[in-house]
Amino acid sequence: MEDTQETNETESTAASSSEGTARVTAREARHRRQEKVGLVTSDKMQKTVVVRVERQVQHPKYRRYIRRRKKFLAHDDIGAKVGDIVRILETRPMSARKRWRVVEIVQKAR
User: Fold this and answer.
1) Residue 10 pLDDT greater than 50, yes or no
2) What range does the domain containing 19 cover?
3) How far apart (Å, rounded) are the C-alpha atoms in residues 78 and 96?
4) Are 74 and 99 in contact (CB under 8 A)?
């Protein structure tokens, strides 16, 4: 009798955990937040850093790869410094230009 109660409990917890993952995957399928990796170029502000993200795009006519750079303002609770390579995640607007937050420091500056 006890064995059947234990299996019923484990089945119910397994079912509830699978429902939870189904909700998460449906939410992720609807909108996955962008992640970017870049170099911190300025930390002069309080809890805000400027992150420079580089990407390479192919020139439409000449087929050579060109480097494109863009700067993002990111909210920083971690304490990233100039020269750190960080991962930033898209988030809700925090100010007029700040729509990213620092998730982790990938590599510390030397």
Assistant:
1) no
2) 1-32
3) 21
4) no
